[in-house]
Design brief:
Shape: elongated
Largest sheet: 4 strands, antiparallel
Number of domains: 1
Strand order of the largest sheet: 1-4-2-3
Number of helices: 0
Mean pLDDT: 89
Radius of gyration: 13 Å
Distance between the termini: 11 Å
Low-confidence stretches: none
Bound molecules: zinc ion
Strand content: 25-35%
Structural class: mainly beta
Length: 78
């Protein structure tokens, strides 16, 4: 189970769709929010490569992963 505040590195599989804060440590850049989709992999930063971490801020299920909008039955996860 993923808990809020857990950090993920580039290459890791995205566990939950939602809003993540991207924290760059390889160059000056304010943290900023991005949307990530479950099942894909967190990408490397174009500037600092793997020196970026993603912190889950808010889960938000992808519309096509929701049972009411998907044509197939999926596990009831975000
Ligand atoms: Zn970066």
């Amino acid at each position: 189970m993923t808990s809020k505040g857990e950090r993920f590195s580039p290459g890791a599989t995205i566990p939950n769709s939602g809003i993540y804060s991207a924290v760059h440590s390889g160059h000056p850049k304010d943290d900023h929010e991005v949307t990530c989709i479950r099942g894909k992999k967190f990408p490397e930063c174009r500037d600092c490569g793997a020196k970026v971490e993603f912190v889950l801020m808010r889960k938000a299920r992808h519309v096509r992963h929701h049972e009411l909008f998907s044509g197939e039955a999926l596990p009831a996860t975000t």
